[in-house]
Amino acid sequence: MTFSIVGPTSGTLLTMLGIALVLGLVATAIWDKREDHPFSAWLGLAAVIVVNSGILFLFATMPFAKVVFHDQHLEVDVPIYGRDIAFESILVSEARLVDLEEHEGYRLLWRTNGLRVPNYSFGWFQLYRQGSALVVMRENAHVLFIPTKQGFGLLLQLEHAEEFLDKLNSVNGDA
């Protein structure tokens, strides 16, 4: 069974596209200086192209993020940070739907490895009181928190979170 993760808003995607365009202008400015500093221009241009490619990759793939139930594990299929989590490592009894406006302990404290653009957070974050978590969500949302025995949690905004939680409870991964 597959559950879609809520993707970024069109405003977020436009922001990312704007960043990519600005980086394109930076690349053009670097290229114009290639005669004065040829090695630096090539190095700068290569760095901008790599960063821009990453932004465009995320731009193209974030709307297709999903969580898939398999026989023995849960697959979190998101760009770059995707992973498989065995059902026995999920603390099913502690999984819950959380309103971030009401439950301060689940709010994002700082980003450890991820991307945070206006109205969208994606990657690894430290939570206010819940340790670290793999996060894919819009800001100030109703999200699903799934703790694991591996020392991290999942903080996901799913399109059908209640249905997902029912399915997770039916698997009963607690050991």
Summary tags:
175 residues, alpha+beta, six-stranded mixed beta sheet, four-stranded antiparallel beta sheet, 3 helices
Report what the structure shows.
- Helix content is 33%, strand content 31%.
- It has two domains: 2-62; 86-171, no CATH class.
- It starts with a strand and ends with a helix.
- A hairpin with a 3-residue loop joins strand 2 (66-69) and strand 3.
- Helix 1 (10-32) packs antiparallel against helix 2 (38-61).
- 22% of the residues are buried.
- The chain is built from three helices and ten strands, in the order E-H-H-E-E-E-E-E-E-E-E-E-H.
- The chain has helices at residues 10-32, 38-61, 161-171; strands at residues 2-4, 66-69, 73-77, 83-86, 96-99, 108-117, 120-127, 132-137, 142-147, 152-156.
- With 175 residues, the chain is of the alpha+beta class.
- The chain has a six-stranded mixed beta sheet with strand order 5-9-10-8-7-6. It has a four-stranded antiparallel beta sheet with strand order 1-2-3-4, with no helix packed on it.
**Helical proportion?**
25-40%
Q: Which oligomerization state do the chains in this entry correspond to? A: single chain
What's the shape?
Answer: elongated
Q: Average pLDDT, to the nearest integer?
A: 85
Radius of gyration: 19 Å
pLDDT below 50 for ≥5 consecutive residues: which ranges? none
Number of strands: 10
Total helices: the number is: 3
Q: Sheet with the most strands?
A: 6 strands, mixed
Strand order of the largest sheet: 5-9-10-8-7-6
Order of helices and strands: EHHEEEEEEEEEH
